[in-house]
Design brief:
18% of the residues lie in helices and 11% in strands. By secondary structure, the protein is α+β, with helices and mostly antiparallel strands. The strands form 2 sheets. Strands 1-2 form a two-stranded antiparallel sheet. The protein has a two-stranded antiparallel sheet with strand order 3-4.
Length: 93
């Protein structure tokens, strides 16, 4: 979007709550960690997808104007993924 729209920070927060049974236990006051427990079991599944390596990635034309010129060069998805991979390994791009 040529920085017209900013993506949302994605994160998972494990829901927690008070363990009422532990609060009644005299020893529980000594250990604050015992007073908090996971309320619900939560499972996450990672899903990874890659674009066609030959697909050109570039700013959306309606997000490029005279006052907001293209901030990023066009690149194929394959080139972009390879750059990210090499950078993660500390290699020159």
């Amino acid at each position: 979007t040529n920085d017209v729209w900013v993506s949302t920070l994605h994160r998972v927060i494990v829901p927690t709550g008070t363990n009422d049974g532990a609060a009644e236990d005299a020893d529980a006051d000594a250990d604050a960690d015992m007073a908090t427990q996971v309320v619900e079991r939560r499972q996450s599944v990672a899903f990874f997808v890659n674009a066609n390596g030959d697909a050109v990635v570039e700013p959306i034309p309606t997000c490029v104007t005279e006052t907001n010129p293209a901030r990023y060069e066009a690149v194929t998805a394959g080139e972009y993924l390879m750059r990210k991979h090499l950078a993660s390994m500390g290699k020159d791009i």
